[in-house]
């Protein structure tokens, strides 16, 4: 009953803070909609925040101010503004805001995604980039990726022979989980080895908890009361993760056979035991980074493949053009190899167009200002949360012709790439906080899509029309399709 007495006092405190904050900053802040006491602008945000913020930005501009409880937010919705925050003033916005889910699940934000900027984060990112995500390390797992993708193709080929409908979302999700586990942990894990609910379910629960509107993030003093019950759930998930990761570390405390490829866990344990790391680096830090890589690897690539296949099924003429390119570049007597990917120009345009319309992290991960600054004549206070709405940028008619249409040909002769240099299209972020796994992610997406389209023709089940495919979104840390994608395969290649 204590929370009944405490909550009114906290709400009064919130109101007084907001009145003081408004008086101090309102004349210099970016424009925004009218707020209400205590909540600020929270009442304007629904189940798809990126879409709601896009609509608000259309009225209030590409640099917009929203207040969520105690938290001042700057919403960035144009390429020019994104360049200011992520390149020109990158160092001032390189930090991350406090985050309740990352606090409990990611070992007090010791991971790369949500970690505070400083010597530890800089050194850990350098270590991961050089030791875990380098071209040499990624290439060392090439044969493993080929093997796992062949397993996928074999399953679909069997379904084609039986004239069965396949759940593409489920199959691609399982492939992504298996590839990630083998790279990171050295082997695949059965669903029940992490928890009775299943491997992917528990990983996705953590991702959902990280994205749910949490009063503790907006009203820090309310986090102790856990009014939504989220903290209890976070602690439960964190306990499951920690038990699983501890088991993995214990399994790796044995010598590898000579010549055996070292996975990410082996590499990190070797660095920890050698003592060469010039910063605090123990098992807790290893667990935080491993969990970071697992969450990123399992969901992001699979979700992008899912969106891509949905768009190809909705646009059969685009599917045929991809298949024609594959027939010309690869031929019809073998599967696609990773070495073919650089020659598949039209496929690359298709992937770009999917990232434009369906970025898996439409608001990226929020940034936080370190000091007061001024951008485009607007005052940006210290400790403001900055969200870059790449969903809005990707659908801005001022940037893209026919912005709502799926037209890969728009990239013919275009200089725009996905590496964070062109702010019209930054699905992996940009600057110091850009995703370090971009190379691996693009290889997986391009290879899986190429294989699915080259090996099989696809039709929709039960007479469904392409226009009837459900393209609604399920918001989370990764924005997935709300319903699974199902289709009927038929073989194009003679694989056996």
Automatic annotation (TrEMBL):
Entries under InterPro entries matching the protein: Cyt_P450 (IPR001128), Cyt_P450_CS (IPR017972), Cyt_P450_E_grp-I (IPR002401), Cyt_P450_sf (IPR036396)
Record keywords: Endoplasmic reticulum, Heme, Iron, Membrane, Metal-binding, Microsome, Monooxygenase, Oxidoreductase, Signal
Annotated positions binding heme: 435
Signal sequence residues: 1-21
Pfam families: p450
Record GO terms (molecular function): heme binding; iron ion binding; monooxygenase activity; oxidoreductase activity, acting on paired donors, with incorporation or reduction of molecular oxygen
Location, primary (coarse class): membrane
Protein location: Microsome membrane
Superkingdom of the source species: Eukaryota
Cofactor(s) needed by this chain: heme
Membrane topology: Single-pass membrane protein
PANTHER family per the UniProt record, alphabetical: CYTOCHROME P450 (PTHR47943:SF2), CYTOCHROME P450 93A3-LIKE (PTHR47943)
Protein family according to the UniProt entry: Belongs to the cytochrome P450 family.
Protein name: Cytochrome P450 CYP736A12-like
Organism this protein belongs to: Daucus carota subsp. sativus (Carrot)
Biological classification of the source: Eukaryota, Viridiplantae, Streptophyta, Embryophyta, Tracheophyta
């Amino acid at each position: 009953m204590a929370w009944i007495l405490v909550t009114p006092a906290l709400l009064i405190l919130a109101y007084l803070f907001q009145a003081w904050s408004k008086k101090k900053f309102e004349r210099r802040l970016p424009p925004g909609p009218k707020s209400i006491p205590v909540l600020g602008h929270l009442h304007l945000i629904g189940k798809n925040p990126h879409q709601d913020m896009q609509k608000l930005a259309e009225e209030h501009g590409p640099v917009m101010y929203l207040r969520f409880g105690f938290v001042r937010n700057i919403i960035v919705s144009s390429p020019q503004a994104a360049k200011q925050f992520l390149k020109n003033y990158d160092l001032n916005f390189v930090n991350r805001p406090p985050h309740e889910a990352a606090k409990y699940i990611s070992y007090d934000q010791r991971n790369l995604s949500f970690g505070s900027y400083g010597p530890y984060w800089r050194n850990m990112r350098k270590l991961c980039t050089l030791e875990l995500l380098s071209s040499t390390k990624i290439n060392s797992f090439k044969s493993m990726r080929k093997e796992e993708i062949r397993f996928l193709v074999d399953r679909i080929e069997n379904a084609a022979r039986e004239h069965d409908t396949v759940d593409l979302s489920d199959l691609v999700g399982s492939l992504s989980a298996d590839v990630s586990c083998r790279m990171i942990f050295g082997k695949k894990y059965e669903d029940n080895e992490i928890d009775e609910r299943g491997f992917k379910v528990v990983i996705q629960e953590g991702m959902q908890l990280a994205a749910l509107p949490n009063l503790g993030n907006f009203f820090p003093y309310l986090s102790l009361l856990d009014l939504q019950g989220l903290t209890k759930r976070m602690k439960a998930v964190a306990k499951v993760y920690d038990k699983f990761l501890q088991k993995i570390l214990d399994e790796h405390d044995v010598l590898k056979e000579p010549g055996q490829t070292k996975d990410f866990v082996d590499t990190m344990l070797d660095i920890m035991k050698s003592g060469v790391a010039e910063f605090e680096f123990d098992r807790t830090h290893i667990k935080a980074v491993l969990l970071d890589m697992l969450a990123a690897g399992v969901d992001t690539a699979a979700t992008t493949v899912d969106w891509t296949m949905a768009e190809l099924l909705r646009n059969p003429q685009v599917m045929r053009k991809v298949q024609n390119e594959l027939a010309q570049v690869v031929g019809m007597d073998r599967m696609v190899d990773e070495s073919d990917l650089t020659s598949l120009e039209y496929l690359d345009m298709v992937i770009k167009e999917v990232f434009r319309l369906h970025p898996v992290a439409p608001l990226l991960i929020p940034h936080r200002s370190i000091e007061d600054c001024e951008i485009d004549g607007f005052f940006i206070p210290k400790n403001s949360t900055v969200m870059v709405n790449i969903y809005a940028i990707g659908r801005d008619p001022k940037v893209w012709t026919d912005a709502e249409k799926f037209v890969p040909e728009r990239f013919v002769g275009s200089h725009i790439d996905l590496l964070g240099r062109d702010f019209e299209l930054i699905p992996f972020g940009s600057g110091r906080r850009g995703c370090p796994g971009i190379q691996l992610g693009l290889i997986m997406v391009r290879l899986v899509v190429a294989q699915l389209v080259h090996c099989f023709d696809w039709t929709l089940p039960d007479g469904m029309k392409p226009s009837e495919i459900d393209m609604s979104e399920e918001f989370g840390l990764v924005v997935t399709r709300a319903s699974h994608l199902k289709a009927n395969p038929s073989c194009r290649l003679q694989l056996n």
